[in-house]
Amino acid sequence: MEGKVSPIVADAVDYKGSPADRAKTGGWVPAALILGIEICERLSTMGIAVNLVTYLGGTMHLSSSASANVVTDFMGTSFLLCLLGGFLADTFLGRFKTIVIFASIQTLGTSALALSTKLPQLRPPPCHSSENCKEANGLQMGVLYLALYLIAIGTGGLKSSVSGFGTDQFDEKNEQEKTQMAYFFNRFFFFISLGTLMACTVLVYIQDEVGRSWAYGICSVSMFTAILVLLYGTKRYRYKKSQGSPIVQILQVIVGAIKKRRMNLPYDSGLLYENTPEGSRIHHTDQFRCLDKAAIVAEGDFDKNSSNIRNPWNLCTLTRVEEVKMMIRLLPIWATTILFWTTYAQMITFSVEQAATMHRTVAGFQIPAGCLTVFFVLAILLTCAFYDCLIIPICKKWKGTPGFTDLQRIALGLALSTLGMAAAAVFEVKRLSVAKNHPVSTSETLPISVFILIPQFFLVGSGEAFIYTGQLDFFITRSPKGMKTMSTGLFLTTLSLGFFMSSLLVSIVKKVTGHNGGSGWLANNINNGRLDLFYGLLTVLCSVNFVVYLVCAAWCKKEKVQSMAKVEMEKC
Description:
Layout: E1 8-13, E2 19-21, H1 28-58, H2 64-80, H3 82-93, H4 95-118, H5 138-167, H6 175-209, H7 212-232, H8 246-259, H9 318-329, H10 331-336, H11 338-347, H12 350-356, E3 358-359, E4 361-362, E5 365-366, H13 374-398, H14 406-437, E6 446-449, H15 454-477, H16 484-513, H17 531-571
Parallel strand pairs: 3-6
Antiparallel strand pairs: 1-2, 4-5
Helix pairs in contact: 1-2, 1-5, 1-6, 1-7, 1-12, 2-5, 2-16, 3-4, 3-5, 3-16, 4-5, 4-7, 6-7, 6-13, 11-15, 11-16, 13-15, 14-15, 14-17, 15-16
Protein name: Protein NRT1/ PTR FAMILY 6.2
Pfam family, one: PTR2
Family: Belongs to the major facilitator superfamily. Phosphate:H(+) symporter (TC 2.A.1.9) family. Belongs to the major facilitator superfamily. Proton-dependent oligopeptide transporter (POT/PTR) (TC 2.A.17) family.
């Protein structure tokens, strides 16, 4: 019977709660249905985000910096709420129910946004000159915020579970399905990019030329259809049982270590508590030894009526302690990748505002300003294709490795984003010189081609292709098996904090450099500001951050080598 594939998937159940039948559940068909809802989520979220800044400035009459902050706060909240979605999925709902519930919330949000852009009572009257513009009132902004943050809640809950639920459809213990899972990750990133590409082209065009309410209505209909399609596959999915929240498990180790902080550690780590099955144990490491105290056996750690029942808030296994250590080791790389997403935020805020002021007509067709982000997405797709078709084969031939390591890809992403900000500063100098020599009204465009912005979109886009895959690889492969969802959430918080950092930086720069409300680096009309200096500041910050990242990456590599060497010595 050796080599025969079991008809039952060991750690999965079907929709009835029975052991999952390999032939009747999982595989590419249900995975494709899950990819469908991901492409609709990207279409909705990015279709709103990439062109929202023009709506806030042109229709709601907010200032340039205020518009940028609304967009970055919206995106930051979306990714931050991934932690909430992951917690609910792991602890209470499971991934499938989490996806359905939060996708429904996102559909409700896009419907509310379509309504807010349709009704004239929910936006200020149009203005014909900058002096007579009336900014949106509290009620109008309140309805807009309600719609946006319903979408943010839906996006956060959905993103936290959709990739995990997709991988649940493949059995890691089966070699054939394990290979299919690798292809699923590639297709997942491709579908994210495809959804973003459709958002930056088709949806932005509909917003500008047909009407925003129509575009957001399309988002609502597409999400509702995707939910129905997802529900159609209920009987075909494989479901994984919830194993408890990693956040609670981490807190148990920290609380246990604090309670026993005055106790002395044993001279031999073998005396620390451990009842994890042999095949799932993690070897002890000497770092963060204060956490080892959570595994010291003390009086009162076990139930008085049963010596086998322990209080997890007093006593943790050594493997659980080592899992927390593994999560802590991710933090230096986590911290030094946040700034990349601050530069990314500029591509969907100030760069779109730049495009709106420039000549965008090609063969009689005027390109919507938000559509410039298509070059960002094309850079991602071209970089991925270049990496897969050229870099990976070369590395396999010369080094015997499948491409760059996770840390090398992250480094490339940070370097390219730094170059992208430098290019943005240089080309903004050129745009401002044209604006100074050719004063125009707010409704007219400058006599300079919008295509000079392509390098900054392309460089940051290529950087995302490297850093996104590098971060995903780093956080998943270097985290404990039982904390994969937690580590994915940790990865997504870098996006969230990057957007929030952008909002904070804009507010600080606006306050420090602004005078009389409209002047300073980030003026209400960017033709009167110094956006080039803001981009220059980001270039300097990115350069410093890159140096710090290299130090952290060297430490990470050293610790990994030492850990592997210790494991080999213990085996010997």
